[in-house]
């Protein structure tokens, strides 16, 4: 390892060298796990070598991962409070060292990016620089000198114990329980509340999509308690499974999300939740979803499995294939209807199937259209690998609006046919739904064209006052028609 860099100006004798850990301390996430997630996303076949690399030891494993992928250190979730403190101390002439268990090459890239460190100490492929190994290395680098240390977890205990002024940043519960006689003089906490981060990660608002499970029953006017209970259990199972897929998507997209102006605030990208916590949530939610599905017909479980497989394929590859991605999105909406039908033994009419395909295709396209329009308005070129260009905007508008009007036409044909009289005593009232549908769909596309639509139309629908009023009015008309 090269010797630490030195400053041209002499450090004041009264300033004790300051050593800071990287993972969980200066950075709110774990750079090794971040690198592994990038590897899984970008080089899935190389990931097959990981078990063999683990057998070579932690230091060699870290070296392999660092050599295989280059983590974007410019967008890591730095602890801003701590970083500002380090910059202020550096301005005073204090020597600051980055002492981390991360691989030396990755740690050096972080140091080069921040430009505040007098030296870097990291794992070298043979020695895993944590705990006592790190303490011994610091003592050899700073002979005869005391030092201050900032850490976050139990491997940092030996260093905190020998530190002149121990400090912590986002300390883990394990560390807080084992500090004992160590009393940190400073604490740098910069994480959102765990419950808030958890609710944000599982995207409770997206559960609104799963209300489609109830539609086969509602549209068939079947309110038998047992079937309603089955629909409710199916809704819960589907929602848990959906949240699990959202988390998997966020973990695999973690580096891309950190470069996005809005998605960088997602819990995993921001470092408010760890990837380990994310995988624990995924495992728990999938287990609960499977438990719920076990009380429902086998056909529902098969639809749920198809949803999971399709979503994983979409996350891994299909979302980067133009047009196929929006067909998948629309198909996942329709799949929820089919799952609800299977859970309650309620058949879906060909009218509902046709209507849902065109309506959801329009909503899927408007999501992509809004993303591109917002990029165009900001003067930014697409960089998320979705395969769309700004020149595709007009074509997407044509596809999306055509699908929207096709859905309205199918609904109009349905209410003018014979099938509707079997379910509604006053079917002519349903004609008032047509202008409401046209109003909402046209408004969605108008706002998208103006760059004023949230990139997810579901979020827009449940937060927009006009959309909610249209929904209430539609429900009232359907009730009167019944």
Order of helices and strands: EHHHHEHEHEHEHEHHHHHHHHHHHH
Global mean pLDDT: 90
**Uncertain spans, ≥5 residues at pLDDT below 50?**
1-11
Counting DSSP E segments of at least 2 residues, the number of strands comes to 6
Sheet with the most strands, sense and barrel status: 6 strands, parallel
C-alpha geometry:
elongated
How much helix is in the residues? 55-70%
What percent of residues are in strands?
A: 5-15%
Derived from helix and strand composition plus strand pairing, the structural class reads mainly alpha
Order of strands, main sheet, comes to 3-2-1-4-5-6
Using the CA coordinates, give the radius of gyration.
28 Å
- In whole angstroms, how far apart are the ends? 79 Å
Oligomer: single chain
In words, what does this structure look like?
The chain has 482 residues and is mainly α. Helix content is 56%, strand content 6%. It contains 20 helices and six strands. It has helices at 31-42, 50-54, 58-68, 80-91, 104-114, 131-141, 157-161, 173-178, 194-202, 215-219, 225-252, 254-258, 275-293, 298-316, 324-344, 350-377, 393-415, 433-449, 457-463, 465-481; strands at 18-20, 96-103, 119-123, 148-151, 166-169, 186-188. The chain has a six-stranded parallel sheet with strand order 3-2-1-4-5-6, sandwiched between helices. The N and C termini lie far apart (79 Å).
């Amino acid at each position: 390892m090269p010797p630490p860099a030195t400053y041209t100006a002499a450090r004041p004798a009264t300033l004790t060298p300051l050593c800071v850990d990287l993972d969980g301390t200066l950075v709110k996430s774990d750079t090794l796990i971040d690198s592994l997630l990038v590897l899984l996303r970008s080089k899935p076949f190389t990931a097959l070598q990981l078990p063999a690399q683990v057998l070579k030891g932690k230091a060699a494993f870290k070296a392999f991962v660092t050599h295989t992928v280059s983590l974007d250190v410019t967008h890591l979730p730095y602890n801003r409070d701590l970083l500002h403190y380090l910059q202020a101390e550096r301005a005073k002439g204090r020597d600051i060292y980055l002492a981390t268990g991360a691989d030396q090459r990755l740690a050096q890239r972080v140091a080069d990016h921040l430009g505040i460190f007098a030296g870097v100490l990291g794992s070298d492929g043979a020695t895993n620089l944590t705990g006592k190994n790190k303490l011994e290395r610091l003592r050899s680098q700073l002979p005869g000198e005391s030092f201050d240390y900032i850490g976050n977890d139990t491997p940092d205990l030996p260093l905190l114990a020998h530190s002149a002024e121990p400090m912590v940043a986002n300390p883990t519960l394990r560390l807080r329980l084992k500090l004992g006689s160590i009393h940190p003089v400073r604490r740098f906490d910069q994480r959102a509340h765990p419950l808030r981060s958890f609710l944000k990660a599982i995207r409770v608002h997206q559960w609104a999509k799963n209300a489609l499970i109830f539609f086969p029953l509602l549209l068939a006017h079947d309110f038998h308690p047992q079937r309603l209970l089955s629909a409710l259990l199916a809704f819960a199972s589907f929602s848990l499974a959906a949240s699990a897929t959202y988390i998997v998507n966020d973990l695999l997209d973690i580096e891309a999300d950190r470069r996005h102006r809005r998605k960088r605030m997602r819990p995993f990208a921001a470092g408010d939740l760890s990837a380990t916590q994310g995988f624990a949530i995924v495992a728990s939610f999938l287990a609960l979803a499977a438990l719920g599905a076990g009380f429902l017909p086998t056909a529902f479980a098969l639809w749920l499995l198809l949803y999971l497989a399709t979503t994983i394929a979409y996350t891994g590859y299909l979302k980067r294939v133009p047009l196929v991605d929006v067909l998948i999105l629309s198909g996942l909406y329709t799949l929820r209807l089919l799952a609800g039908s299977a859970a309650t033994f309620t058949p879906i009419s060909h009218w509902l199937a046709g209507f849902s395909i065109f309506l959801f295709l329009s909503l899927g396209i408007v999501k992509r259209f809004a993303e591109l329009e917002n990029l165009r308005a900001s003067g930014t070129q697409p960089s998320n690998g979705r395969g769309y260009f700004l020149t595709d905007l007009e074509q997407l508008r044509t596809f999306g609006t055509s699908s929207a009007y096709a859905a309205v036409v199918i609904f109009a044909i349905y209410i003018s046919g014979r099938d509707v009289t079997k379910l509604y005593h006053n079917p002519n009232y349903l004609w008032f739904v047509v202008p409401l549908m046209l109003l909402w769909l046209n408004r969605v596309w108008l706002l998208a064209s103006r760059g004023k639509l949230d990139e997810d139309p579901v979020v827009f629908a449940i937060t927009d006052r006009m959309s909610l009023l249209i929904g209430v009015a539609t429900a009232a008309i359907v009730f009167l028609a019944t």
